[in-house]
């Protein structure tokens, strides 16, 4: 494919890979290299559903393609199992960032739940330190081509969110930019963790909440209006508060209007949504309408291993589904950088010095 459709030039896979990209929603335990899982599992005697890297990669993609968030989440048992020691965490974190660099990502917020990595005796603090060590090594090796921050996730079915929020604050100047809750959404509303969110607000910290993925508007409403989320993880179901009449007239309900008016960032993860049943297909994914309505849409991978994807692949899939061009990809990228949990001057520097000049060149050359 040479990228030309009629007279319009479509961004090609290789061009998109070279373009600077920003990811705000990418799980550390959802982005291991299959070959690394095989090696680490062998070291600790963990039984995997496949023995070689290629079949294991395929197994993850197929098992995660289940149409249900709960079943999708079961696949993490195998990644979390091999991430229980200092050395394993350092390695996984280092390789994760190496893969982001190779994919052209210039800024990443990487999340995981420290409470899931203490089975072999590491403390929560040691878990965060090991991940940071891996990130630092890969960032140094990349020579400044990427900036990476951790987001600490608490599992919504568990009861350790306050502890994890305190951990995020204790690491706030050492690589941790914020907090999140994840896991099964139905039955576990965000308000269960209100004390943690209120604590973070009092600390002038930042957090995002997985909401509006496997459950609808009440989850989004609670995340924003009760818990004070800065961003929404997924947020796809905000579409339930938008009506499009036969004549194309669009009406926003009060919650959708609030999300758009307040420029609340939506961390959209199209491929993941198709696997968990939150969206039917790329072509019908709500990201199309939400982009058209100028919500603050960002594009993310969620779990590169389970969705067998990358930032480049997500962008290219959107280009193919919605005929997006460079201006659209730049808009997604700047939206994401504006929404990062990084100080304003640092966000601006990446937008002005890295993102804009690169897209300017891509746009003028297309
Ligand atoms: O998309 C998701 N929704 C809810 N939970 C998720 C999603 N992707 C990953 N997780 C869970 C499984 C991981 O073990 C955990 C921490 O990264 O977060
Ligand atoms: Zn997620």
From TrEMBL:
It is an enzyme of class 3 (hydrolase). It comes from the Bacteria. Zn(2+) binds at residues 25, 27, 210, 302. It catalyses: adenosine + H2O + H(+) = inosine + NH4(+); 2'-deoxyadenosine + H2O + H(+) = 2'-deoxyinosine + NH4(+). The record marks 234 as: Important for catalytic activity. SUPFAM superfamilies: Metallo-dependent hydrolases. Keywords: Hydrolase, Metal-binding, Nucleotide metabolism, Zinc. Its EC number is 3.5.4.4. Residues 20-356 form the Adenosine deaminase domain. Its cofactor is Zn(2+). The keyword Membrane does not apply. The keyword Hydrolase applies. HAMAP family: A_deaminase. This is Adenosine deaminase. It comes from Nocardioides jishulii. The lineage of its organism: Bacteria, Bacillati, Actinomycetota, Actinomycetes, Propionibacteriales.
